Amino acid sequence: AAGRYTVQTARPDRVFVEPGDLIKLPDDSNPATTVDTAVYYYGADGLRYVFPNDKTYFTWYTDFRNVKVVGLAQLGTIGIGGTVTYRPGVKMIKINSDPKVYAVSRGGVLQHVASEALATALYGATWNREIHDVPDSFFTNYTMGTAIASATTFIPVEVAAGISGGDLGSG
After folding, report:
1. For a Cys staple, 141 with which of 6, 55, 83, 150, CB 3.0–4.6 Å?
2. pLDDT tens, 25-56?
3. DSSP state of 128
4. Degrees, nearest 5: CA angle 46-52-54
5. DSSP 59-71
């Protein structure tokens, strides 16, 4: 069924995976390889969504405790749906080739934070510690929205509070 990975009981190498699970390959004990470090979110659409880096992952989760390890054959049967974006409302992002700073809204929509005063109003006195640089290649996972008009039109805590793991595979 869509949104569920069918487990065949005759296949002991299969791990039961359901929407909302975090999955990855087993550690191959080779520090020269990185394929085994990727973590994926398994979406309700039956696809996997990759966390592009640990900074993105930690906007959604605090640790790796609930990540299920699946074999390469099983992972290969689950299509890739896209890339997970930063959790909305948690951090601001920018890219090295553009000085603009953006807040992340639902669905990976970026909203320009036009001034230090607005950034302070949104994220507090330490707002500049709440900005992460995103590689240019990951920036295309986001879409541009309207600039934030005031601190009353974008409230980070409220934006983040309305988001659940089910939103990971939607943007």
Report:
1. 83
2. 999 889 898 888 999 999 999 999 999 999 99
3. G
4. 115
5. HH-S-STTEEE--
Residue 122 φ then ψ, to 5°: -80, -45
Please tell me the pTM assigned to this model.
Answer: 0.85
- Answer for the pair 86, 163: CB distance below 8 angstroms, yes or no: no
Beta strands in the chain (DSSP E): 22-24, 40-42, 48-50, 67-69, 80-83, 92-95, 98-105, 109-113, 131-133, 143-144
Strand order in the sheet with 48-50: 67-69, 22-24, 40-42, 48-50, 80-83
Cα–Cα distance, 70 to 6 (Å, whole number): 14
